[in-house]
Amino acid sequence: MTIPPTAYLLVSAALFAIGVYTVVAQRSAVMILMGIELLLNAAGLNVIAFWRFVQPDDYSGQIFLIMLVTVGAVEMAVGLAIMLLLYRQRKDVQVDSYTELKG
């Protein structure tokens, strides 16, 4: 049984929409980080789908996905470290309460 490429694209679009909604609607910094992770996962799913159905003999899609996962892991590590530091100072992770971070 072969899954058609449109199924991958629909799942990716759904993940991307959920990620955008989470980033826009949530006030908790942890939830915003989770939304950004969903956006990266949607992009990764698109990369794998296009690689699988366009050029399965070329390894560039897999290499690009490894780079994407690495960037996502680093982003989450840095974001969670910043949130932990802010939580230790204020006991709050709501982004509305950090007005002094504006430039």
Structure description:
The protein is elongated and about 50 Å long. Helix 1 packs antiparallel against helix 2 and helix 2 packs antiparallel against helix 3. By secondary structure, the protein is mainly α. The model has no long low-confidence stretch (mean pLDDT 88). 76% of the residues lie in helices and 0% in strands. The chain is built from three helices and no strands. The termini are far apart. The longest helix is centred in the last third of the chain and has 31 residues.
Summary keywords:
103 residues, 0% strand, mainly alpha, single chain
Our measurement of the CA-to-CA distance between the termini, rounded to an integer number of angstroms, reads 54 Å
Helix content: over 70%
What is the H/E order? HHH
- Mean of residue pLDDT values: 88
Structural class: mainly alpha
Radius of gyration (CA) equals 17 Å
Strand content: under 5%
* Discrete helix count: 3
